[in-house]
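Incident review: delayed structure delivery

Summary: a single-chain prediction request sat in the queue longer than the usual turnaround. Root cause was a stuck worker, restarted by the on-call engineer. No data loss occurred. The affected request and its eventual output are reproduced below so the record is complete for anyone auditing the incident later.

Affected input:
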Amino acid sequence: MRTDSTGNIPFILGVTGHRDLLTSTENSPEALKEQVKQALIFWQKKIGVETPLWILTGLAEGGDLLVAETVLELQSEGENILLLACLPMPEPAFRKDFVTSDALSGYVSIIERITNSKNRLFELKNPLSTIEFETAINDSEFGVLRSALYLNQSLFVAKYCNVLLALWDGHESKGPGGSADAVQYKLGNTPAWPEDIIVDKNLLPASDFDGQVSGIVHHLFVARKTSSLKLTELTEFTSMEVDVGKLYSSVGQTKGKNILNELIVHEFQLMLDEMTFYNQIAKNHTDVSSSHDDCFSSTGAIFQKADSIAIANQSKYRNAVKAFFTIITPGFIAYELAGNYIDQLSSVYILLVVLCAMLGSWLLIKYVRKNDYKWQYQLARGIAETVRIREYLNIADVEPTTEPLIPRRFRENLPLLNHVIQLTEIQWWDKNYQSSPESIKAIWLDDQIKFLDSRLELSAKSVTELVYKRPRYAAHLCSKTASISFYTAVVFGVILLLNLTAFYFVGVDIFNSLNGALMYIVQYGLMLAGIVVLWSEIAGYESTTLGYSSLKTLYERATILFEETPDRSSKKMLLELAKEAVFEHVTWTRSEMASDLKEK
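Output delivered after worker restart:
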């Protein structure tokens, strides 16, 4: 039985399947359901018990309904698996496309079970005008407008899933939005649709350079009643072996496709690793202020848990840093003394302190490397911030775009952040999602400026506030202290040099044999400067201050433009702001990881 994991990041398995499945002894509904069940179990094992499994489906007759039935059966057995059913039109209009009474009764039964459970049923937004939409939902001949709704539903499922489960015969689609189209789209090869069909621009690829919303297809071969041409050869995903079906990662076998395929495979594997790593951390973390029973509100729970994990691991990392400096400072002091007592018994004790400091700091760094507190903190903080930024865009009714918020070079290293952005985007596509653009200035822009101002203050009420909540002030004091210590050492070093020169060349001892004391001042002045600089570097004061300053400038500019520009321009501006904010955050994350104590 899978454990409850509210606030953990889910893995999404999308579903596409033929409407006209050909049933036979080998291809009976029971046999197909068993294959589907084995496929679901495979992914459950792959992602681990801490990772929720979401099934995104369009509930169409045939393959979609068969998978939905299987999922509901697994739920009745106690499995923690959720069904997200997205319809392309109002439910009463959608049910008109079921051609047999058996299929319709099965569909009605599934709808009732979904609405009376934690599963989710929602209607997708669409690119049609009001008149076009009315025409489409009243069309009994399956014309171009109604086909457009199904096409966009198919693209939506393919775009927002991590893996597309395809109950498919391997042949071309007979109409726009069929299983083959969804497969090709998921594998980075956008099919050619009729010119007059309306495709939502936000579901199309951004560019050839940025790449299609590519991923993995899990193919379960099924026969159908009518045939079509076979699709182009597909590239197998060889990194994983499945007991049922085949995995594919791209279309075609050209050199260029192979290179892109390697990138897709790498990004998918890394996302899976980051997801299972994070959810393993989150397994026993229960410090979440509120629970979310509605799976669609789970991005709120994800934010709360990620924020709580970030705070907890930041505290653990800070304690490790304090312990590190508590250990090495006596070692530095003893090291500076060692040379002056080398011929005395006390040197044994001094060197023992130095060795203990070396051993203690080595063990502490090893401990930090093993627990990886800073990476846990940075990953959780990145998850929380990207969810929050995309949720603000949802509230402002800013539609998802073809161009992702995270640039390609960062998505390759932090693909999990792009995944949680897409999880949050799904909410926007719900036609009944409630947004309030007029409140965005108060709850996002003004609030962020207030927060950043507090972090950039040049004052602090306590040492704890200074060290942990005032990076600009801390950076200023560290720089000032290190400079004073260094220049003090330089000045006294010059004085020592002049005194020694006068003594050896003139025979005059200006300071009456205070050379030892002067040398101590030089030694410990340099030591203090080094320790303060090392502290500032490991604490990341400079990089954090630069990040906060850049973000404050962005939010101040956005506030002015938001007040002056029309609504449409404001949405475009907020989208650009979100991209810049995410860019600043991932840049800061990389900078922070470079200064991790485990690298010292």
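Verification: The longest helix spans residues 298-338.
Action items: add queue-age alerting; document worker restart procedure.
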